[in-house]
Amino acid sequence: MTDEVTAPEFASEDALVVDDDRFAPENVALVTGAASGIGRATALVLAENGLTVVGTDVDEDGLAETQAKAEQHDAPGTVETVAGDLREDVPEIADAAAEYGDVAFLANVAGMQHIDPIEEFPMETYDRMQEVMVRAPVELSKECLPRMRENGFGCIGNMASVHGHYVTGDKVAYNVAKFGIRGLTQSIAAEGDGDIRAFSVSTGYVKTPLVTDQIPDTADQRGISVQEVVEDVMLGQSRTTEMMTPVEVGNLFAFGFSKHGQHLNGGDLRFDGGMTLTYE
Hints:
Helix content is 44%, strand content 15%. With 280 residues, it is an alpha/beta fold. It has a seven-stranded parallel sheet with strand order 3-2-1-4-5-6-7, with helices on both faces. Helix 2 runs parallel beside helix 3. The longest helix has 29 residues, at 123-151.
């Protein structure tokens, strides 16, 4: 099971590098959840594209490791770090990011998961998940939009999920949050006047700690083995039998932010291996 869900180490050659004049060191990409998983991979991919990346997370050690990896790979851009709690420190995080240049891109990636049926779902956990995965992206957008308007351009990418299209049981907080983040995406597009775009990214299961950590809980809830969770629950409806890697998701953010995504506004990049549109 471990080999099937353990992500490969980041490699520069796996990053999508786009020739785009706006991918320049004077422009800042603020990335949440940058200490691990998709957030880390997105930060590293954007650094490979020459941007100044400001990664934020509550995990200071993880942020330091992300920054070290960018240096290790001699990325054309840099990864700077700002430790902070998305439930309390959003204005300070946005202000800190602006100290490094013009805030042009925002990637709302940070996520949480908890497995329980609705009748047993702890509301304090529900509230914490909504604060991190819905309220914080709204507040970060509120903080970054004026700066983007000053620049004359900008783009906000939001990490959604197949669970923002259809849902599975025992994940009510996650399901609600991912539907909400798609609503935020479309709201930004409606108010962006064409100069500021927004898009969401919806994937199936990705090889991240968030996925690995939920496997035992899902197995317990359903009374099945961890192997059955991977093969039947996570990949059972997918036409593609391999989970995505974090860098593959980070590449979607790079594409969406780039000039090639100029008509992607309010839309969703659904890379789900056929999970939501096929059945047997």
